Amino acid sequence: xxxxxxxxxxxxxxxxxxxxxxxxxxxxxxxxxxxxxTPPNWMFPVVWTTLYLLMSFSAMRVAQLPESGQALAFxxxxxxxxxxxxxVFFGLHRMxxxxxxxxxxxxxxxxxxxxxxxxxxxxxxxxxxxxxxVSVAGALNYSLWRMNLDQSA
Length: 153
Description:
- With about 150 residues, this protein is mostly helical.
- The protein is built from six helices and no strands.
- The chain is elongated.
């Protein structure tokens, strides 16, 4: 295990995680109508911590392989969109714009998963929970936007 690579990818995840600390749910989010299947608030930090560790470990594995440039570029794209989503949704309260970011996030996570899988099946497998979570997050973003059209821009 290359701890330097792992910690570098984990630091990038830390930047994304920091937006969750800076832009918390708050009264605006609590007042929104939510679908019955909305995960409880305590679940988000638990899931994200697990995902960030898996994302970093899988990226560390792929970074050591030849021909990994495109896969790592997809990884960089997904962490950028992940970092952007929170301030757009929770900071600006722009659910429709956040949905656009979420589409880009989902596509970049799917591309990363596929590219990682092609280089190292274990790295690709470790990205699957993230793709599932982003799919749920996308459905939740869409549901919140549609259920709260009077609150969205």
